[in-house]
Amino acid sequence: xxxxSILLLVSVQMSLNAQDFVINASRVNDLMxxxxxxxxxxxxxxxxxxxxxxxxxxxxxxxxxxxxLEVSIxxxxxxxxxxxxLDNSLKPIVLGSHIDTVPxxxxxxxxxxxxxxLEIAFTLQDLNITTRHPLEFIIYSNEEGGVMGSRALAGTLxxxxxxxxxxxxxSMGEGIVRLGGDPSRVKEVQRAxxxxxxxxxxxxxxxxxxxxxxxxxGIVEGIVGIDWYDFxxxxxxxxxxxxxxxxxxxxxxxxxxxxxxxxxxxxxxEGRHVCTVGRIQxxxxxxxxxxxxxxxxxxxxxxxxxxxxxxxxMILERAKEIATASNVEVTYESIDAxxxxxxxxxxxKKIIEAQINKKGYSYxxxxxxxxxxxxxxxxxxxxxxxxxxxxDGISHSPREYSTPKAIAQGTEVMFQTLLATDSSKKY
Length: 427
Ligand SMILES: [Zn+2]
Known about the structure:
The radius of gyration is 24 Å and the shape is elongated. The protein is of the alpha/beta class. Helix content is 36%, strand content 20%. It has two domains: 2-223 and 341-423, Zn peptidases (Aminopeptidase), CATH 3.40.630; 225-339, 2-Layer Sandwich (Alpha-Beta Plaits), CATH 3.30.70. It has helices at residues 2-15, 25-35, 51-66, 111-126, 148-154, 172-178, 209-213, 251-268, 305-326, 346-359, 373-377, 404-423; strands at residues 70-73, 79-83, 93-97, 135-139, 198-204, 217-223, 225-234, 274-276, 280-283, 293-302, 329-339, 342-343, 363-368, 383-388. The chain binds zinc ion. The site of zinc ion has 6 residues, from loops.
């Protein structure tokens, strides 16, 4: 890992032309390299509440102080670096992301946006700029364990969640204490709706759209909603040797046709929605018994709740047809683990687009298929996200990678977006 870091540093200096950026392109990449050193020994992780997480957070807080921010930890463990504005009666503008990772994760998911925000704090200090709005640089706590810190800010973190134990062995309640928070006072960190002028998050795409199309920046249209259903096909479990082929009520055969139908429905409609059957269980589950019951999952993701509903209705129609033709029964249940789509702010997206055009970068609008802290931040005030390409679309893996140039370009766009938003009368 050490050798690779040195190689990366050399290539940063060779490929980045400092004149192309107001932000310091080398520094933001050096910050990325420095943060990547804080890892659990046996794997490439910085899971929330682990010693590596605490060390990474200490590093970030030290850097925030060096950048002149007033640093505190809220009751849910969010790290908040404040910078006063010219008019502190204005609502704050928020920049940030997370530094915790999944087990066996990478060095870019969350880290890119966190270090970009930190770099912007350093740039403001270098240039002696005081914004009109007060600024808050936030490292959201435990993003990978259910967007914990941003949920606390949005007031959607329930006490039920405190019992959940992650791979470190600590429960969320214990973890919050380890981060310097207080689970009994988490409710106090909630921000009222309308109390933030704007929030921005830079993030790696975690998919391959930008990389494959060779585009430099993505403007996130919104974060997709997720609907989950449990489907059950009920046939008749019977002897596989003595029941003739024309006299069976085979639930698994019907379920197989259903899985095919889900794929066909999804492909028959235009758009970026996705429909997935990810889990299947056939009962009684013996080679010599015709399956009598099959339980399977259905997941639908899209930016439009209406479209998700319409896709579901089409799939349900097909399920009923298949059940009738297969002489089995079909039932379903909607699962209450779902999230509504979260739209990013139209005016902020326009501001981002204008900055990208000034820089001459190539870009597109695209949805985020993964969840992010910004999803929760849209509940508090106008929010927007900037994506940079993930090489080969790989994420949640040690092989996750975004180029130093992409990190610098994304940081520059966020910096210019911050200045443009700050000077706009609308905010
Ligand atoms: Zn992330």
